[in-house]
Structures are given as C-alpha cells and as structure tokens.
Design brief:
Length: 187
C-alpha cells in the first residue's frame, strides 16, 4: 500500500464548511482506502494499492488520484476544491526540513507557515514570490512548497497573498506544526 496526504484548498474557509466524515466518504467513493480526516482545514490521509497498473507511472498515478478526488469533491460539494497531493514521504521530508534558522525564528511571534503549490514554480515565478517578502514576512521556496515566517502572525501580516498566487499559482497554506503532526501521526 502507498500512503498519501491530500491538502484540500478552500475547505472550511468562509461559508464552505465540510465535516471530516463527509470528506472521508467522498474519498472512499473513489476507491481510496483507510481514509482519515485530520483537523478541520481539509487534510485527508489515505492509502492506495502501491502496485496498481504496472504500466502506470508514479506521476500518472498521482494525477489520476488528484483528478478523481477533485471531481468527486466538486460533484458532492458543488464547488471546485483544489487537491494538493503529497506522498507521506514528501510530508515526512517537509516535517523534518528546517526552512528558517534559529536566528530567523528568534523573537518572532508568528508561526512558520507552509504553502503547497501544484508544481515547482519556474525560477522567475519563485523570484517574484520571494520579492514579496520583507523582514516582517520572511519567505523561502523549496520545490513545490514555500515557507512563510510572519513576525506577528498571519492575521497581522500585510503579505499580499493575491500577488503571491498570481506569481506562483494556486496555493494552500498549513502551519508547519500541522505538517509535523501529520507526519508524526500518519508517517
């Protein structure tokens, strides 16, 4: 079996409220197994048959899971939900990464945030993202993820998330601690 984490965008934001059991049922309806929902921000953990179709590449399998889950979510919920699919190994690597030094973390009240992207941004897009940062909003990019250290928390931040999405595309954000807990509990 192969374990995956789906970070769902736009779940339990604004008026779009969905309970964990409903998300689990939707995931199970497309053949995902051992499905669990974690926290209320749209995190699904599940397994798939590791072997699957022998001719199916890892990228194709990832795309198939993503498309199936997005289609089922949209059909049931009535709106598009972007799925940022990560293998448990990718979550484990994120959880043990050290995006900011101890010196950078010192004196900040904010929590480290992890932004998941649909793909690794082009170099120019990554530079555009980084240019949005400053001393109050430290930003780093690593593959299909970006890290944000707001000095006083995200609600007090003036980071332009619309400009950020314009630079690198669709994104969903979780606290670094959430990623670590996902890794610890399911990895």
């Amino acid at each position: 079996m192969s374990r995956w984490v789906a970070l769902l965008g736009s779940i339990n934001v604004g008026r779009r409220r969905v309970k964990g059991p409903e998300l689990v049922a939707i995931a199970e309806s497309v053949g995902l197994t051992n499905v669990a929902s974690y926290q209320t921000s749209g995190n699904l953990i599940f397994e798939t048959d590791k072997t699957g179709d022998a001719s199916e590449s890892a990228t194709t399998k990832r795309d198939t899971i993503t498309t199936s889950l997005e289609t089922a979510l949209a059909g049931t919920l009535g709106y598009q939900v972007v799925v940022y699919l990560r293998s448990i190994e990718e979550i484990n690597a994120l959880a043990t990464s050290k995006p900011f030094t101890d010196e950078e973390l010192e004196g900040t009240l904010g929590k480290v945030q992890v932004g998941a992207l649909l793909a690794t941004p082009a170099e120019t897009a990554a530079h555009e993202l980084l240019a949005l940062g400053d001393e109050a909003n430290r930003l780093k990019v690593d593959g299909a993820h970006w890290f944000w250290l707001p000095d006083e928390g995200i609600s007090s931040s003036d980071l332009d998330l619309k400009a950020l999405a314009k630079a690198v595309g669709s994104t969903t954000i979780r606290t670094y601690a959430t990623i670590q807990r996902l890794s610890h509990k399911f990895g």
